Amino acid sequence: MRVVIAEDSVLLREGLERLLTENGFDVVGSCTTGDDLLLKVRSYSPDVAIVDIRLPPTHNDEGMQAALEIRARHPATAVLVLSQYVELGLAMKLLADSAEGAGYLLKDRISDVTDFVAAVRRVAAGGSAIDPIIVSTLLSRRRSDDPLDQLTPREREVLELMAEGRSNQGIADKLVISLRAAEKYVSSIFGKLGLPSTGSESRRVLAVLAYLRS
Amino acid sequence: MGIARGPKPSTIWALALAGGVAAASALAFALTNEAIGGELGEPLVIAVLSDWVTVSYVLCGLLAWWHRPASRFGPLMVVAGFANYLTTLAWTSSDISYTVGQSLDFLPPVLFLHVFLAFPSGRLQSSFERVLVVAAYVTAVGLELVRMMLGGFGPHNLLEVTSNPDAGLVAVRIQLLAVSAFCLIGVGVLAVRRLRAGRPLRRSLAVLVDAFALALVMIALLFVSIVVGWSPIAEIRWATFAALGLAPVAFLIGLLHARLARSALGDLFVELRGDPAPADLQDALARTLRDPSLTLAYWLPEFGTYADLDGRPVKLPSEDGRATTLIDRDGAHVAALLHDPALNDEPALLEAVTAAAGIAIDNGRLHAELRARLQELRGSRARVIEAGQKERQRLERDLHDGAQQRLIALSLELSRLEERLEADPEARTRLDQARREISKSLDELRAVARGIHPAVVSGHGLQVALEQLAARAPVPVRLNVAVEGRLPEHLEVAAFYLVSESLTNIGKHAEATAATVDVARANGRLVVEVADDGVGGADTERGTGLRGLADRVEALEGRLRVWSPSGGGTRLRAEIPCAS
């Protein structure tokens, strides 16, 4: 899988390059600015672009702007945004239309190499990766008279993993249950929340996030 | 300024009596002289009209003199009255008195012109006016003398040298036309004066007096009509006389208007006892002095200049033709009044008003000075806040770009190391532990950085930042941000901390199940309101949290209010000035 990285911290950028290379990715370019990133995406058409949300010159949201532009103009390239903080509004902006080939993770996640590499693969393959913190903040602000209360603790766990963008198999692996059991939980959750069950996993992510946001 | 010494009562009475005697004698002249009145109508009518002018000028002049001793206008009117009387000597049959009276025959219109232009000070205001009036006197009396020398005035004319009626006719025409011209020029002078003064001050009064400029036009019309040979209309003459006689009454009313102003002094005293604000003081002074254009300027010793209520420097003397009265105390400047020059004729009133207002003016000046300093202080405080803000922002960025990134990179390295040490479980465990430590450090560092400066606010604005706070809040939050566009950064940061602290407090103390956050901009203020449905009973003085919030809001000249009845939830409302 071909990757482009935009990250202005040298240490982190080189760390990412090594990490991804070691795990079988082909890092075709790395840069420090949004403009550079757009250029590289245009030239190399990578499978995924990994973008720091804050990039020079202002360190405000140049990275996010670049990410949104890639989403709009180069749908073939997936985008994984890395952020120092949970910026819910930005995450939702990124996922406004679809969660396909989009991810938003805290930078800390990088150090959990296995999970991080899996997330990059998932996003590059057209899936999604939403930081658990975002999911849990969305969950925590639900009102008390909520259909979510009807979920069992296990179903809640499954919901969170689903919202993070994991596949049924991924959920099964994470919870150490059978694929069959995971599927049962998922359809039960959809039934309780009154969501239409949809085939694609990333459409599912968006539906769950939209539900949590409402 | 001293109060001018007025005439003695005995002088006034004597002059009034003289006026009465003069009027009576003029009446007697008219009724006893058969030669009088052929062309003017009934002798009685003429005598009454002439006396009306005489008495009117003398009495109004005396009243004006009595009430306004500082002005020369009163004496001028008295002189005009007696001069008018002198023309009636032409009705006598004594050679000398006839000659004197006849030689002054054309004097009344010129006197009227003079009085009119000299209103209200009694002085002509420019050398042009003085030339005009002198020329009018010379023409009126000088040509009359020439005419009398040319004969045709009957047996009592002592000045007759030759008898040349044709030359006399030419002379009288010149005389009529010249006096008409002078009267019209006088009207022009008046018009120019009004234009130059800009808006007519003391409007009603000015209009009343100006109306009598019509009398000057009437005189001119009358004289011109005689020259071109229109048959003289007696009623128009009478009307002109009547108007001439009515004018002094208008002048007197104009002058006494100031007298009324003195009674307004009483009101001023009452108002001053209420210690009026500077703007009110200026209004009160303007009312008392009946000059709506009056400006009160304070002396600012530090700046070495006078300044108006808004602190704008005022140049003295003023360039727009307004007069200045300085108010000094103990040899030092305190303030100045810029006013209508007409007030200069009432020095006593001005002095009384400024003396009465002295203390209030002093207060007002201190007030103005205080405000100026406060303004300065505000400016420097804003600069300090701004500088602090910038510094915090820089620190946060340093932390973000430096320490945080390094820690993450370090953690990443440890992970990669961990993967390579599959054979050594103990080393793996220890590496994993180290990674967790780094993760905790990162969390702490993040909290510190956010406390120093909420980067998300400057990066993405209040709305996004508050959404994030709400999402992270310990209870469900209904967030409503009604603010268009971006606000000045220090306001956004203040609002962010306000909401952040409040939500933290709710989590710690309120035992609430829900909270609402409303941020709106209204009437030049940013209003932030945070409410919960918890146990209430929060105390601004006890908890450092609320006190700190209040300090933060007050530093921005805002106000923080907290309602927290026991058991009734807590509502916190901050209003911060926010120029739009």
What is the topology?
The complex is a heterodimer of chains A (214) and B (580).
Chain A: E1 2-6, H1 10-22, E2 26-31, H2 34-44, E3 48-52, H3 62-73, E4 78-83, H4 88-94, E5 102-106, H5 113-124, E6 128-130, H6 132-140, H7 153-164, H8 168-175, H9 179-193, H10 201-213
Parallel strand pairs in A: 1-2, 1-3, 3-4, 4-5, 5-6
Helix pairs in contact in A: 2-3, 6-7, 7-9, 7-10, 8-9
Chain B: H1 9-32, H2 43-67, H3 73-87, H4 95-103, H5 107-118, H6 127-149, H7 165-196, H8 203-211, H9 213-227, H10 234-273, H11 278-288, E1 295-300, E2 305-307, E3 313-314, E4 323-329, E5 332-339, H12 347-420, H13 425-452, H14 455-472, E6 477-482, H15 489-510, E7 515-522, E8 525-532, H16 544-555, E9 559-563, E10 570-577
Parallel strand pairs in B: 6-7
Antiparallel strand pairs in B: 1-2, 1-5, 2-3, 4-5, 7-8, 8-10, 9-10
Query: What is the helix content of chain A?
Result: 40-55%
The order of strands across the largest sheet of chain A is: 2-1-3-4-5-6
Main β-sheet description of chain A? 6 strands, parallel
At the fourth level of CATH, the homologous superfamily of the largest domain in chain A is: Response regulator
- Helicity of chain B, in percent? 55-70%
Q: Indicate how many domains the architecture of chain A comprises.
A: 2
**Beta-strand residue fraction of chain A:** 5-15%
CATH architecture of the largest domain in chain A: 3-Layer(aba) Sandwich
Reported for the largest beta sheet of chain B, the result is: 5 strands, antiparallel
Q: Structural class of the helix and strand makeup of chain B? A: alpha+beta
Count up the domains of chain B: 3
> Got a strand count of chain B?
10
Task: Note the total helix count of chain A.
Answer: 10
Rounded to an integer, what's the Rg of chain A over CA atoms? 17 Å
Identify the strand order in the major beta sheet of chain B: 3-2-1-5-4
State mean pLDDT of chain A (0 to 100 scale): 86
Described by the principal axes of the CA atoms, the overall outline of chain A is globular
User: Main interface pair?
Assistant: A-B, 34 and 40 residues
Total beta-strand segments of chain A: 6
